Amino acid sequence: MASINETKWPGILAIVLFIVGVQTKDMIWLPLSIQPALCVVLFMFVGQKAREASLFNKGALPPALWICALMTWLYCGAFYGQLYIVSNTYQHGAIDVIGGICGAAVLIKLSGLASERLPAATRLPLAWIGRNTPPLFCIHLVVLNAAPWSVLFTWCDAHSIAVWPIMLAAHVVGSSVLTGVLYVLPRGG
After folding, report:
1. Is the pLDDT of residue 19 over 60?
2. Of 1, 14, 95, 157, which has the maximum CB count within 10 A?
3. pLDDT category, 188, cuts 50, 70, 90?
4. Are 36 and 86 in contact (CB under 8 A)?
5. In this structure, are residues 99 and 83 in contact, taking their beta carbons and an 8 Å threshold?
6. How far apart are the C-alpha atoms of 187 and 10, rounded to whole Å?
7. Integer angstrom CA distances of residue 112 from 20, 45, 118
8. DSSP string, 152-182
């Protein structure tokens, strides 16, 4: 990200890096998650531009646009929902990227609104999440590998459509508990 920011065309280079990351993942998987990192540069670039333009500030965008972003995110998640940054999977291409960006923007905006309107209730949880994002992402990868959503949804479909909210809740609670346990374990030295 720092390197492309020093060029004349950082936006174009972010797109090129994304394409290279996606196109090379099936040919060779490079160590240290290099291909996912190449793809994430596009998301970082969009976030950087949103911050520079102060798009998350109060009144910067009309509420109707935030509602459109929310609906886009929900639509993409409900009907596509195949974006897995960790495995560099963007099965539906641009729609996955658009949904991911809209989802991130909505979550950032909602977090800001919650912090502003409910400071006592949100300060500690949001600060904790902010400080612990790397362990949360790591456990998210463990959970995705141990209990993939596709397997859970297939199982739920085979048994009952009403079961999926229970499975979703169990998945989230299980991830949270596992994250907490791993976080408090003594660190190797």
Report:
1. yes
2. 14
3. low
4. yes
5. yes
6. 39
7. 34, 20, 10
8. HHHHHHHH-GGGHHHHHHHHHHHHHHHHHHH
